[in-house]
Fold Sugar phosphate isomerase/epimerase.
Amino acid sequence: MTIRVGSAPDSWGVWFPDDPRQTPWHRFLDEVAEAGYSWIELGPYGYLPTDPARLGDELARRELRVSAGTVFTALHRGPAVWDATWAQVADVAALTRAMGAGHLVVIPEFWRDPVSGEELEPGRLGPQQFANLVSGMERLGHRLREEFGLRMVVHPHADTHLHDEESVTRFLNATDGDIVSLCLDTGHYAYCGGDSVRLIETYGERIGYLHLKQVDPRILADVVAQRIPFGPAVRRGVMCEPPNGVPELPPVLDAARGLGVELFAIVEQDMYPCPPDQPLPIASRTRRFLASCGA
């Protein structure tokens, strides 16, 4: 059983394809390799070069490989959004497959703006919207497997409709386990009150991918008390450098090893926006910490 550790543009303050406050893509690639990682995610589509030949060359020069692509979807809005959703997903999936990766991380769309925290729609799904989410994710998972050979892993995320223990377990119980797997993000799940070890022990057969992240419990307490949206919470430093937060990562890794399957465990520390010299030292220390945990 192998846990393959990597990192992602998110740990370099990257949330969008193009933003002058973000680390330039070539610096990210240089620094993620320097920090000791050999696996990366693609991040927002368009941040890294989208031409497969060019991107493949850039990765090979740095001895990097791709574990997954990432895409946001709003499938709870029903069949009317399917065509536009698939067009977007197909672009990401094609690049992901061309880079030799086997996973696509699918995140439900935010109900609050990820930067300003402005409410864009209600934070809870009605019965029909939940049914749309279930059927849409199953349809998407089928098509990604059939057309691209990719395993879809759905990512519960703060300020989306799939975030806490109640919504995650309801979603898992409603979906086909042969088609819909989970990307467990330890930081987001803790941010929303969930227990990652318990989720792995209870729904281990559904865990297809990990994001390793920690939350500063002191900042989180203020965030919860003041009902601060996720974007402003990130700017306060709610996502922190391991091993300074929760959940403790060694028990999570031990529980994951207990599944007896190969898993990617991709480090993500939300830091949008951040000073350009901040990510590399954190990434290097985090890689050394995870190595001390046997990962």
Remarks:
- The CA atoms of residues 219 and 236 lie 7 Å apart.
- Strands lie at 3-7, 39-41, 65-73, 103-108, 151-154, 181-185, 207-212, 214-215, 239-240, 263-267.
- Residues 127-148 form the longest helix (22 residues).
